[in-house]
Amino acid sequence: DVKVTQSSRYLVKRTGEKVFLECVQDMDHENMFWYRQDPGLGLRLIYFSYDVKMKEKGDIPEGYSVSREKKERFSLILESASTNQTSMYLCASSLRTGVSGYTFGSGTRLTVV
Amino acid sequence: GDSVTQMEGPVTLSEEAFLTINCTYTATGYPSLFWYVQYPGEGLQLLLKATKADDKGSNKGFEATYRKETTSFHLEKGSVQVSDSAVYFCALNKTRQSGGSYIPTFGRGTSLIVHP
Lengths: 113, 116
Prior knowledge:
The complex is a heterodimer of chains A (about 110) and B (about 120). Chain A has about 110 residues and is mostly beta strands. Helices cover about 0% and strands about 55% of the residues of chain A. Chain A has strands spanning about 5, 10-15, 20, 25, 30-40, 40-50, 55, 65-70, 75-80, 85-95, 105, 110. Chain B is mainly β. Chain B has strands spanning about 5, 10-15, 20, 25, 35-40, 45-50, 55-60, 60-65, 75, 85-95, 100-105, 110-115. In chain B, strands 2, 5, 6, 10, 11 and 12 form a six-stranded mixed β-sheet that branches. A four-stranded antiparallel β-sheet of chain B has the order 3-9-8-7, with no helix packed on it. The interface of A and B includes residues 4, 31, 51, 92 and 94 of A.
């Protein structure tokens, strides 16, 4: 089974801190995604990457950046955390066509105080 | 653009009741369709999928049929259990120009609560 591992289940950070969320997948998937999930808003795509060093903005990229230096690792960076970035963050990966579905990590619940 | 519309929840049922969660979609071409389940505090897990019209996906007693004529992919289960309580997401994949990759579009999710 494909595994997507997110480095932390829970994080508490202070306003203004630089925050790194790490995601690693072990099945050689081309695509990787970062979502945030908020009550009543569903899943919103922040960024995705379809290859090493390639990235594209999703629906809500403001305040975030990403890095994909190796195929298996996709990092989400909050340059200067703010309280409105308190959320559940979900990483996912898939083959390029996505026909086999998208495999999600367990999520990181980030609280910015 | 592409979109997925799910019935609003929560859906509240007694154990052994019949479940239907409606999902309709708007998309050009022939997307693949998926249902995902999310248990409290967890990420999403793929429940079932269908890749072409009239395909039926099934898993763990759940099933859904890809209906192109009605652009629907309704989730059904004949007899729900308390352990089925979760949030269910309908989704489709859709190609984007960049890199030819397929990006999922998700519905808002439907919460299911099953009482003993």
